[in-house]
Amino acid sequence: MPLLDNQGGPVQAAALTLVPVFYGDWSEQDPRVELTRTLLDGLASTSLWNVVRKYTSGNGRVTGSMIAAPAVFPNLTYGMDWGEQDYAGLIAADAVPPPADGSAGIVAVVIASPGVRAPGLGTRFCGYHSVQIWGQPYIFIGDPTNDASCRMRGRTQTLNTAPLLVHEVVELVTDPMLNAWVGANMTESGDLCAWTLVPLPGAPTGFYETDGVRWNLNVSGTLFLTQSIWDPVTRECSMGAEDPPISAPVPAPAPAPGPEPAPAPLVAPSNASARVPPASLPAPPAPPPPRPAAHPPVHPPWLRPKPPPLAAPFAPAAPLAPLAQGAPRTGGVGEVIILPGIFLFALTCVLLFFIRRRMSRNARDGQAPPEPTAPEPTAPQAPSAPPAPPATRALALVAHAV
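RESULT FIELD:
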């Protein structure tokens, strides 16, 4: 059984914008601010991202386009303690971008300053990525100086949060909704190789050393020391140094242009004696070199999309189309309820009619409806004497008359 498998959820296939949010007591001139933006902005162009791009799902391959937005400095908005409920407060204060749909791909990376506390920081985690209840992923990075277990000990490095940032960003793009590339006990792509260095070309120890600084990742000329990442194909920790780059197909080259047409002859206007050929005009001055951009404002104005207008609460329904001649009629829920009701009503009316008719007939005859009675028992009778003969009966009548 593989240590890590795709559970069916999506990966971050769309272009991604990371917004570094420096929460706490940060100075805008802190060198770690620019180092963090350099790492986030150029991570997708390194050899390490060749490993990350091997993660796929039903919605495609992990994106190869990832940039860093200007840094945000909300200061200690909620004191020295951080909780997941504070992220909603940062949105309300316009310190981080509002919730956006998945296609926008805007994710805040909250980086805590020394002294900021969070439940479980340094004991259960050094950083994490999660999803808000409205479906917005985000990253939280604790300061490694708070706890020695969150640092790559014994190594001089440019940015001590670099392993944590790489770890969480890689897990974010390979498991953004916590249902994609995940193994037992919620193990993700960064967990299997946490704090692990792998041999590199010419560096069997897993790092190079330049001017006393150890590194294994070159991001736009800035050297960082970070952990390796789990390769889902080779099933081992890798830095991707020897892997061929994975990119989009290279478009076919455009056909070679043909010979340029001869320039049209210059014609002097009727009111001028001559025209100066364009080639003899002095060349325009070269534009000045671009000035370095100033540090972004503390609270960039995140433009909130206006909600769509509410529909009328009782909008009239569209008229029903007439039933075509010969078209079959389909019963609905209303017919299932109305037809049995009509039948029961008609049956009740018929029963009431017969009951009233019977009562009227009884009232006209002056009789109450016969009531069923039980037959009364009768006593036994003695046998009667046989009738007298006719002569005897005549004598008895005469005697009675006298």
